[in-house]
Design a protein that fits this description.
Oligomer: single chain
Number of domains: 2
Shape: globular
CATH class of the largest domain: Alpha Beta
Structural class: alpha+beta
CATH architecture of the largest domain: 4-Layer Sandwich
Largest sheet: 6 strands, antiparallel
Number of strands: 22
Helix content: 10-25%
Number of helices: 9
């Protein structure tokens, strides 16, 4: 029988709002879960969103098998096997490296890594806001321990491949160091004390639950159109200081300059994704990759007073879309709603990739070596959106 233990929340977190977010799992060997144990873990995942396991021994093959158990028909890494390695333009190329014998599992980390699982030598870079944001923290403040969120997202190619259902992230080697202070730098004065190089998580359910009625009505009627090859499309663009979306500076690559693409492979997804375990709605939009927004009109008989885009809309202006999305997502990354995981060697984090968004955090020096194994698999189906009953309820 597995044991589920409440997460050790930081002092900044609201224990009431996060009382049902995350559970540490004890009492199982992840390399060989029994059918009954897997069913319990799966149920806990969809209920709690993130499940850390401590002191885990896991081979590449076992990690792939564990991830695949949540979607047995899934075969390839979320961005396609070896495709990021082969891309010269994707912003992900410096961050991940496929393992030769299990290409569905990726090496992510920082510093010089030698002779690891069939990779002779590699020097991945921990994602740092200074390479992606429009503005940067000064070197002086960085030396004092100030940093930022990198990029809030769910793991997904958002072109050709369906978003993975789950991600497993295994901390083989975790650098030691003092906490850093994340600055939002958006005029609010918000800050968050976080462990060095943490991964921060927030609940898409909570993000939806705290919206105003007008924004809930908009969310339940909206679909996001993602750019083709979005991580190439955004390669010259620069992010906002919260890591929650791109600044509207016109730096996105024109579609004519992207690698060959097909309209049939573009992804159009509901703004809200339905949890398969709880049937709750989660606000799940990748704020950096969205290119257009489709809004359905209000259902017949709905009240139009105060409604946004009551007659429906097809928004193509990136600034309008991003400002609207920021208004919807920014409350959900408030310091009290964030779980920043305090990584230890051999931690494994299993998270519901269609129910939470997350970000890399912090700044590491070249000598702070970090070795993580990441696995997520392009799903065998697309996320389910709101039902007719959901639309009627929230409009």
């Amino acid at each position: 029988m597995i044991e589920l233990v409440p997460l050790p929340l930081p002092a900044s977190a609201d224990p009431i709002i996060l009382k049902d977010f995350g559970r540490e799992v004890k009492g199982v060997y992840l390399g060989a879960l029994s059918p009954e144990e897997f069913k319990q873990v799966e149920g806990a995942l969809y209920k709690y969103g993130v499940l850390p396991f401590r002191d885990v021994e896991l081979t590449l093959e076992e990690q792939y098998s564990l991830t695949k158990a949540f979607d047995p028909e899934a075969e390839t890494y979320g961005h396609g096997n070896n495709k990021v390695d082969d891309s010269k333009q994707s912003i992900l190329r410096s961050v991940i490296k496929s393992f030769p014998r299990v290409p569905q599992v990726q090496l992510v980390g920082n510093g010089s890594i030698y002779g690891h699982e069939g990779i002779p030598e590699v020097a991945p870079k921990h994602p740092n806001h200074s390479t992606f944001h429009a503005t940067h923290i000064s070197q002086e403040d960085s030396d004092k321990g100030f940093t930022r969120f990198y990029r809030w997202h769910m793991d997904a190619a958002l072109y050709e491949y369906a978003p993975p259902k789950v991600t497993t992230l295994y901390g083989v080697r975790v650098p030691k160091g003092e906490h850093q202070v994340v600055r939002y730098d958006d005029g609010t004065g918000d800050e968050l004390s976080a462990p060095l190089a943490t991964t921060a998580f927030v609940s898409g359910k909570t993000m939806f639950d705290i919206l105003s009625p007008e924004l809930k009505s908009l969310a339940v009627r909206s679909r996001a159109i993602y750019a083709p090859h979005p991580f190439v499309w955004m390669s010259r663009a620069r992010a906002s200081p919260t890591g929650l979306g791109i600044e509207s500076e016109g730096l996105e690559l024109p579609l004519s300059e992207l690698p060959p693409w097909e309209e049939s492979k573009q992804k159009v997804y509901p703004m809200l994704w339905k949890n398969p375990g709880t049937s709750e709605l989660h606000l799940q939009v990748h704020p950096c990759a969205i290119a257009e927004l489709l809004v359905d009109p209000l259902p017949e008989g709905s009240k139009h007073e105060g409604a946004l885009y009551a007659d429906g809309a097809h928004l193509k202006d990136l600034k309008e879309i991003r400002d609207l999305l920021h208004k919807m997502q920014r409350p959900g990354i408030a310091p009290e709603l964030i779980y920043p995981h305090d990584w230890k060697d051999k931690d494994l984090m299993l998270f519901h990739n269609r129910g939470v968004i997350h970000t890399a955090v912090g700044t590491l020096n070249a000598d702070q070596v970090r070795v993580f194994h990441q696995c997520n698999l392009a799903a065998s189906d697309d996320p389910a959106g709101p039902t007719t009953e959901d639309v009627e309820r929230w409009t």
